[in-house]
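ENTRY TYPE: paired fold submission
RECORD: A
CONTENT: sequence, then structure tokens
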Amino acid sequence: MRFPLKRFIHNRLITAYVILAVFTPIASMACVISTPRTLIWEVSGNGLKSPSYVFGTIHALCPEEFVVPELVKKRLQETEQLSLEVDMDAPNFMAELMQSATLPAGKTLSTMLKPEDYNLLAQHLANTMQLDLKMFDNMKPFMLQSLLLSQLTECKAVSYEQRLIEMAHAQGKEVIGVETIREQLAAMDRLPQQMQTDMLVKTVKDMSAARASYLEMVKLYLAQDLDGLTDITKEDLTPEEYTLYEETFLVARNMRWIPVIEREAKAKPTFFAVGAGHLGGEQGVLELLRRKGYTVKPILE
């Protein structure tokens, strides 16, 4: 069972980011001032010989909505390497993904979920995707969330990460990451298991609401409205859940990324592409770089 499951997951997911795209909101941390409407920023000064760039992505879009702006293509061409959140070219990428996605020995979804919730999820997967929940019984809840992505987007989603990798390879550029897949998915383990399973069941119970919320996020992203993404996130989580989410998925990771961004930008001009939710706010990547002494300015054309 393990090999077919591994192959199935590899084929279903565009990238590891898609896993988190469903489970976690895209919104950025609350901003004190209005953020200019752009998704790409230039980072210069503080000893950098050449500028680097930070681009905010959304991890899943329908093909008809997907476009790589010319200003993004131009800045990628001007740099010497591409950095995503994780290096999907790493030879151990899939092995680490599978290891991080598997429940500890002795735990299964069937024991974590209430019987009625497990049956609800099993029926949903069988009716809508012709899948047997038993084949995922040793998978962590966020893996089940990833399977629901196509039902939220109602299309075969594409990602900026995959397209940027293709462009970087065509230009002979190296692809790196600001964190490992193990570090990224470890953030999920810091959420209480009850919170994880509750969010999974909530999605299945009200797919229409989950779909509407995700499509609203897409709309705000396409409008390059980083500030506007905040409120929709808070609507989906309790204040306690949002505080935990913000600290776990945004603040802690952003702060861990900054030394890596500094190191790589000093070594060579780099095009950094990370989730748009990591850019704005007082603890966002852009402000943290400013505090380090870098000049960070929006690219509007």
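RECORD: B
CONTENT: sequence, then structure tokens
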Amino acid sequence: MIEFVITVLMTIVLMYAFRNHTHPIRRTWGRLQTFLMGFSIKQIGEASPLTTLLVMNHQSLVDIVALETIYPKNLCWIAKKEIEDIPLFGHIIPAPRMISIDRSDKRSIIKMIKEGKERISEGRVLAMFPEGTRGYGDKLLKFQSGAKVLAEKLDLIVQPTIIVGTRHILDSKNLDAHGGEVRVIYLDPINPKEDEAWFEKMYHAMEERLALELAS
């Protein structure tokens, strides 16, 4: 955790200094983490070039590290405002122009849609954890409605993604860390306009794939 915090703060400074190069800075930081924390990333499936919204299960800070390391496009993470409010560390949101939302403020959804549209026009891919918080990695938590609203309002192409093994690498709640392998599994992209029940079907598809990966 000490190493993680120090390198995050260094990365924030670099992103403010080189505002037009935040993506390669974050990717380099991700690769550095895989080395310093002693884990590898195995990708299963492909990131669709059509994707404009990436949704994932969430269990560890390493989820973000893994995606920043391997994802080919510049991700724009949508995070809860509590992260931005953390002294110093919270600059990880505004420095690379991520989006923060206040879940207690109903107007925040309007801000998310407006800023999401701007980031997509810049060629970025939005990224969300629809569970809204970290789980234990053994099952999916209930999805919040933010990803559904965002996808349908902006006509996004959604690619569900399963991440396995990151809590073993770093469990920040229990301050426990290990080396090992992280698996990132890209599922087929979804066009919400083609099926009104897409959100529920996506949840079940992710749930089934997570169970399959954990059993293997």
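NOTES ON RECORD B: The CA atoms of residues 76 and 126 lie 5 Å apart. The longest strand covers residues 158-164.
STATUS: closed
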